[in-house]
Amino acid sequence: MKYLIIGAGPSGLTLAAALKEKGITDFLIIEKENEAGGLCRSAEVDSAPFDIGGGHFLDVRRPKVDEFLFQFMPEEEWDRYTRDSRIELKGQMIGSPIEANIWMLDTDSQVEYLKSISEAGCVSGKPMPEKFTDWIYWKLGKRIAEDYMIPYNKKMFGEELNMLGTYWLEKLPDVSFEDTLRSCLTHKAYAKQPGHAEFFYPKKYGYGEVWLRIAESLGDKLKTGVSAEKLDMENKSVNDEFKADIIINTIPWTEFREIKGADSSITERIRSLKYSSVVTEYYGENMNTDAQWIYYPEESKDYHRILVRHNFCPNSGGYWTETNLTRYKESSRPHFVNKYAYPLNTIGKNETMAELLSDMKKRDIIGLGRWGEWQHFNSDLVVERALALARELTQGN
Question: CB 3.0-4.6 Å disulfide test: which of 54, 165, 198, 230 passes with 60?
Fold first, then answer.
C-alpha cells in the first residue's frame, strides 16, 4: 500500500480520514485494541459515558479542527461550555490557576502569597532555570511551589520532577506578579487559560463517539485487534505482513518489541523515552459544585484531579478520578488503567525526538501525534497536525 498508519487514536484516524477526503484510498490503518479512539475512547458506566483516558474535550480555539470533526458529528450534537476549574487548597476551594485566584483566600494568606511571589526569581530578573522544580520556585515563589505546584505535579508525574525540563510550559497558565496583585485588589481573576477555556462536549455521548464515527467512515481501511510488534525499517513493513511506501507511526515507540534495521543510537533514544500511567476510577455520588475539573495537591488523596461528570455530560451523575498508577490502590469501583497516559517532558527529550524523527523520516517512517512525536499534545492539536501532514503527503495530488 502507499500509506500504513499505525494506531487508530485521534491522530491516526484524522490522517486516514483526511487522505480519504482527498480521494486517496491506497492506505491501511491498524489498531491494537478492538475499538478505535486511543486515549479518547469512552465506555458506558452507570448508564452514562465515561472517558477512560481521563478528561478529554474539544477545544474551541481551532475552528478548522472543529469544522473537520463536525463533518462526522455535527455541531448540533455538541454542547459548548465555559471552563470552570478549581483547586482544593488546604480544605478551601478556589479557582484555577492558583496564582490568579489567591484573592479567594483570607487576607493574611493573600499577603503571604503575594510576598512570596514578589521574591520569585522571575520578578527579580534572575535567568530561567532548566529544571522543572527550579522553574516552579523561580516563576511562582516558595509558597505556591510548596503548597500546590510541587505536591500536585509529583502526584501527577512522579517524585523525580527535576528530570523534567521547562520547554513545555506553554501548557501552563502564564500569570505575572502584576496580574496576581491586580486580581487581589479587584477580586477578579486575571489569567488566560492555556487550553479548554471554552470547549465542546457531546450532548448524548462520551468524547469517544466522534472517533468511532470517523472509524466507521473508514470501512475496511481500518483493521482493529492488530498489534504492531515488529517494525522493519529496511523493508518498511510491520509484523512482516503489512508493507507500505510510507509508514506513519502514532503509537508509543517503546511498544515495538523489535525494530529491524535500527542502529544503537535509535535504540538508545527510544529507551530513553519516559511516560506516566494513570488509572481513571468512577464514583457514583454527585458533588455539590459547578466545577468540571478539580485539582488536589493534598498528599492524603491518592488522585491528583477529578472530572465532575454531571457538570459537562448531560443526564449523567457522579465523577471520575485520575490517579498515577504508582499511587493507585485497587478497588471494586469501575476503573480503567492507561499504561500510556502522558509522555514525560524530560530534559533533552526534544533533542532526542528531533534526532529520532529525522532518522526515521529518512526511511519514510513518520512519527505523528502525542506518542509518535512524544509530546503532551491535546486531541485538538493532534488533529491539526494530522491534517497538516495529510496536506504535506498529498501535495500535487
Answer: 198
Flag whether 194 is in a domain: no
Asked whether 260 and 233 are in contact (CB, 8 A), the reply is: yes
Q: How many structural domains is the chain composed of?
A: 2
Q: Is residue 176 part of a domain?
A: yes
Our CA dihedral for 13, 260, 337, 78, rounded to 10 degrees, sits at -10
Please tell me the distance from the alpha carbon of residue 397 to that of residue 178, in angstroms, as a whole number: 52
Task: Take residue 364 and report the three cell numbers written for it.
Answer: 519514510
Q: Which residues of 62-86 are buried (b: 16+ CB within 10 A; e: fewer)?
A: beebbebbbebbeeebbeebebbbb
3-state DSSP: the chain helix, strand, coil percent, rounded to 5?
Answer: 40, 25, 40
C-beta separation of 269 from 352 below 8 A: yes
DSSP state of 325: G
Residue reference for cell 487550553: 195
The rounded radius of gyration (Å) of the Cα atoms in the chain is 22
> What's the pLDDT band for 18 if we cut at 50, 70, 90?
very high
Are residues 289 and 278 in contact, defined by beta-carbon separation less than 8 angstroms?
no
Does a structural domain hold residue 193? no
Q: How confident is the model at residue 282 (pLDDT cuts 50, 70, 90)?
A: very high
pTM of the entire predicted model: 0.94
Is the same domain home to 10 and 31? yes
Going by C-alpha positions, the residue among 383, 274, 285 that lies closest to residue 333 is 285
Which domain, by its residues, includes 150?
85-186
Residue 131 β-bridge partners:
none
- Are 317 and 181 in the same domain? no
- Measured between alpha carbons, how far apart are the two ends of the chain, in Å? 17
| Beta-sheet strands, E only, within 101-229 | 198-202, 222-224
Which of 252-278 are b and which e, b meaning 16 or more Cβ less than 10 Å from the residue's Cβ? bbbbbeebeebeeebeebbeebbbbeb
**Residue position matching grid coordinates 511562582:** 140
Whether 208 and 51 have beta carbons less than 8 Å apart is answered as: yes
Report the pLDDT value the prediction gives residue 228, as an integer from 0 to 100. Answer: 98
Residues 252 and 337 in one domain: yes
User: Quick check: 195 pLDDT over 80?
Assistant: no
Q: 286 and 146 in one domain? A: no
